[in-house]
């Protein structure tokens, strides 16, 4: 139920984002979704790919420092208020969100969001108990092949 996300610290300078993107492209690895957050001096690139172990090796061989983190993909109704309703459930369950971002695709009338929760295992259990669709990696990874 959890996905492995790759996180890279990048210096906030021209062409530094290109290094990991080019390395993955040259290795034939598609980025399923990403998030880039920055500060004045550095950025954090967060990636989800189908084969995270291979991607991690490729990125490290390209000189990148790569950390892995467990994240959870959750379905949300793709309509006005869908996210607000999901956040109500998360708040009532007492789940802490560290950050989130979205996939570029959905499933039918549902969008897919990626959440980094303080305790991913507890979050999955509580979300499923509340009837929230937690997306398995296998179904995400088969998308768009």
CATH class of the largest domain: Alpha Beta
| Main sheet makeup | 7 strands, antiparallel
Secondary-structure content class: alpha+beta
Radius of gyration of CA atoms, rounded to a whole number? 16 Å
Estimate the strand proportion. 35-45%
Chain-wise SSE layout:
Elements: E1 2-11, H1 18-26, E2 31-38, E3 42-49, H2 52-61, E4 66-77, H3 82-92, E5 97-107, E6 110-117, H4 120-129, E7 134-135, H5 137-141
Antiparallel strand pairs: 1-3, 1-4, 2-3, 4-6, 4-7, 5-6
Supply the key terms.
145 residues; 2 domains; VC0802-like; 31% helix; alpha+beta; 41% strand; elongated; single chain; 7 strands; Alpha-Beta Plaits; 7-stranded antiparallel beta sheet
Q: TL;DR of this structure?
A:
The chain has helices at 18-26, 52-61, 82-92, 120-129, 137-141; strands spanning 2-11, 31-38, 42-49, 66-77, 97-107, 110-117, 134-135. β2 and β3 form a beta hairpin. Helix content is 31%, strand content 41%.
Task: Write a structural description.
The chain has 145 residues and is an alpha+beta fold. It folds into 2 domains: 2-69, VC0802-like, CATH 3.30.2130.10; 70-141, ACT domain (Alpha-Beta Plaits). Helix content is 31%, strand content 41%. The chain is built from 5 helices and 7 strands; from the N terminus they run E-H-E-E-H-E-H-E-E-H-E-H. Strands 1, 2, 3, 4, 5, 6 and 7 form a 7-stranded antiparallel beta sheet that branches.
